[in-house]
Amino acid sequence: MTQLRYKTHHLRPMPRRIFLLAVFTASDESLHNMQLVDAFARNSLRTKAASPLWVDPYRTSGEFLHFASVHSSSPRTSKAKLFYSESTNNQVHTTTRQSSSSVDKDNEFQPHLRQLFLMMRPINFPIVTLFHVLGVHLSVELWKSTAINPPTPPLLLPLLKHPSMLMVLLSLLLVTSTSMITNDYYDARNGVDISSSEQRDAVHYHPLAQGLLSFSITKTFDSYLYAILLLSSAFVPGVLPRLMVISGAIVTYLYTVHLKPKTWIKNWSCAALVAISPVTSGLAAWHVLCGGGIGTACAASSTAPPFRLLLRSPLAFLVVALFAGITSREILMDITDCESDARAGIRTIPVKYGRDVAAKVALGWSCLSSVASCALPLAQGLPLIKAGIGRESTVAFSLGVFRDFISVPLASLKSLLTLLMTPAIRRLSLSVIGSTLLLYRAYSVFKTKGEDTELAELAIGSSLFSVLLVLASFV
């Protein structure tokens, strides 16, 4: 009891002693910056009963000692600092660290939003949206053509505005964005992208390689996009479309990390990701139509996707045309990046076999894309042309060197325009024009054996316009 009373009597004056010691040993600057010095100055002059220093001496003195005893060399101050250091760190600085870390996480993206947005390649967003709309349109046309479904009012616009279909579009855009950011991240880290102040356009904009953006911020932002992608995929209608979205997200990562150094596989994986976009939207739209989400319903036997009809539908021809066209475009891009890929150890077709072989392969895939895009419109348009020949008299039009072999059998110019405005002839015209442009650019690169990189860049840029014409031929 005596020892306990002695210890209590000995410890009670500790706060005042520590305060006086800190005042005489600390510098003026440290005392000026302390947050608790005013409270200690007031409380230290009070009586024992009124002062909170005597009620809980360890808490208050520990908080003060953390700031005041930094500049002191007194043994008693050092012992007290060791005694109170643990409680001081837990009580004083925990809230400050948590608040500062939360503020940093909220503000770390704000100065770099422009660079992060450009890394997502927003120039691809209109193309992805067109793929989505075209897939939904072809699904609606297939729905109307089935005998089990009666004629229905226009369904395209209500279907595009359906919340489930909006989530499909968001998922496709996120798959494209994450693939671009992940590819730029690993290319900059592996030295594929070179810092160049002259090339900062939409195609060659690499802020990581140019030092405009840090790797940590890019990785964190990309992980957030992947999290949003996984969340949005949960709302995609249908099991198969949902699996396609998740598979696309997985393939984008596998492509950058594992598949990119593989010859041929890197080109086919990119082409497959683009080609399945309209299929994903079409199957999701079919699921919404079968579920009656926009006032439609069908028999239980047709709730599953009609794969037999899909294989003979325009959607199948569109997938083949996109796959072949994107493969040709990817090979042309490999021709332009031949030096950087060889330096990074990526064995693309031009790196492994040479530019001339790559130009031949690109031309071959362009031919396959042209055949796939023109086959169905040609099959639908030829009967109409033959019917126009037999229905009216022939009016011959001279066509240069072919005037002895070719004549356009129509009654008048009005009938010619009427024939061109029919859906089948319009689709045939668009597909022929788009395919011709694609073949012309690929053939021009082939003639130079892939040595003219500027011509290859021009072919890559014009291929987007060719794709738009081919897409329009399926409407």
From TrEMBL:
List UniProt keywords, sorted A-Z. Membrane, Transmembrane, Transmembrane helix
A GO cellular component annotation here is:
membrane
Q: How does it sit in the membrane?
A: Multi-pass membrane protein
Q: What is its main location?
A: membrane
Q: Where in the cell is it found?
A: Membrane
TM ranges: 164-182, 224-256, 268-289, 309-326, 424-443, 455-474
Which Gene3D superfamilies does the record associate with it? Answer: UbiA prenyltransferase
> Could you identify this protein by its name?
UbiA prenyltransferase
Source organism of this protein record: Cyclotella cryptica
